[in-house]
Amino acid sequence: MAPTQGDPDSARGPRVTAPTAPKPAAAVPREVWRVTAVVIVGAFLTQLDGALVNVGLATVADSLDAPLSSAQWTVSGYLLALVIGLPLCGWGSQRLGAGRLWLWALGGFTAASALCALATDIRLLIAFRVLQGLAGGLLLPAGQTVIAQVAGRALMGRVMSTAGMALVLGPAAGPTIGGLLIAHASWQWLFLVNVPLGLLGLWLGRRIIPLGERATGTRFDVRGFVLIGVGLPALTYAVSLPGRSGGPGLATTYAPLLLGCCALAAFVLLGRRTESPLLRIGLFTNRVFAAAAASSFLAGVIQFGALVVWALYFQMVRGYDVIGTGLAMVGFAAGAAVLPLSGRLTDRFGGGPVSLAGAVLTTATFLPAALLPPDASLLVLEACLFFLGVGNALSVVPSSTAAYVTVDPPHLPDAVTLVNIFLRLGGAVGASLLVAVVTHSAGGQTAPGSYHSAFWCLIAASVLAIAGAAAILIASDPRAEGTGK
Q1: Which of 94, 194, 422, 449 could form a disulfide with 215 if both were Cys (CB 3.0 to 4.6 A apart)?
Q2: Where is the composition biased (Low complexity) (predicted)?
Q3: DSSP sequence for 146-208
Q4: Is 372 left (phi over 0), alpha (psi -120 to 50) or beta?
Q5: 3-class DSSP state for residue 16?
């Protein structure tokens, strides 16, 4: 249905709020911290699960008597389903209430985890992993929407940054926990470990999480869901292929890339003509939101790409096993522990200055990594990882917070979903392309010199992140008030 002439919001997108000058930080109420603590349970599970299964992939294939190429779909199917679930968050939060959606998603994720542990062949495991991914795709943005709604603009930086600890600690702790489970238990525990945490989250959530308001008359955009449900997985699949063996081909890479781009273009064009679109693309008419979404994409490229490169470096160059690699990556987790401080800075100074400082620091951490010899001191490497964690903490959450504070509360679910989509796509691009750089520069193998090329690529991405953070800062200038309305 075309927008009516009398509705300016329908023609120009949802109304956004211009950024205001920073104010002194107020104390965060205890109730807000309680809600945040419960939401962290779900966020941690989704991040931890991917890292756990990656570690145990070979063991799963051997135990179920399946080729590794088939077992790989327990990872790929989960990631693609995760992407499909993301766009449903905006509509589901409005139709059910963000709190109800979070509870349903956590229940589905927990049940699917138990089913994965009970799978008796690889086909069942892949099917249950897809269900787990669909629930996980709803769980993270729904939880962030709940936090944003209860915190409000003034407290969003500190609260979001605390919740963001789960996004860092899950991937950082996954290799070590997964290695220990494989070594001392069985592959089923890669999934069973989610069940008690999920049940605890459900028990607490029923008592603490606000259910949210239901919007009456919210129609489901079936056409939009079909387009984005095809476009996002196809695009994610295409950009994840360069890092795999065999190289890109016409049918395997370029066809899904073209399909994804065409489907997403149609989604955008038709969405601007739809009265109740699945996602409000009009949010990008606000310069702060657009710049923050671009910065989130780059943050995903850098975070996921850097973690993959460092993990491969420790395993292939330094000769560490999975557990040793996880322990060697502890410097990153220690640096990322400053996330609560980044939230305070964001509430005080705004997301632009903080994310700019994080992008500059991240660039500086990659320079020594690109120049150091393969036998560099472990202490120096841990220092690089520590400051990378600090730079990451100052980049990811502040940029997304800068997007959320410019959006009116009714449109927060759409804003959270869009930023998460950009972050996920950035992660897929970063992890795949960096692996491709490492193997291509070494003639299909991994060699010490190939990692220097990967770190120079990360430096280039970090420079682009500096430009994105600067764009947030410029767009957030109070003199630009009214832009995007």
Answers
A1: 94
A2: 14-23
A3: HHHHHHHHHHHHHHHHHHTHHHHHHHHHHHHHHHHHHHHS-TTHHHHTHHHHHHHHHHHHHHH
A4: beta
A5: strand
Q: Residue 261 and residue 249: Cα distance in Å, rounded? A: 17
- HSE, side-chain direction, 13 A CA sphere, residue 218: 16
Q: What is the pTM of this model?
A: 0.77
Distance between CA atoms of 296 and 420, rounded to whole angstroms? 8
**Which CA distances in Å does 155 have to 28, 30, 338, 409, 483?**
7, 12, 17, 14, 24
Backbone angles phi, psi at 407, to 5 degrees: -105, 140
pLDDT tens per residue, range 330-349? 888 888 878 778 878 887 88
What is the Cα–Cα distance from 34 to 315, expressed in whole angstroms? 39
C-alpha to C-alpha distance for 182 and 25, rounded to whole angstroms: 45
CB 86 within 8 A of CB 428: no
- What Rg, from alpha-carbon coordinates, does the chain have? 21
The C-alpha atoms of residue 383 and residue 399 are separated, in whole angstroms, by 24
User: Quick one: angle between helices 287-312 and 396-404, nearest 10?
Assistant: 160
Q: Which of 134, 159, 231, 135 is nearest to 425 (CA)?
A: 231
Residue 433: C-alpha distances to residues 359, 386, 437 (Å): 20, 23, 6
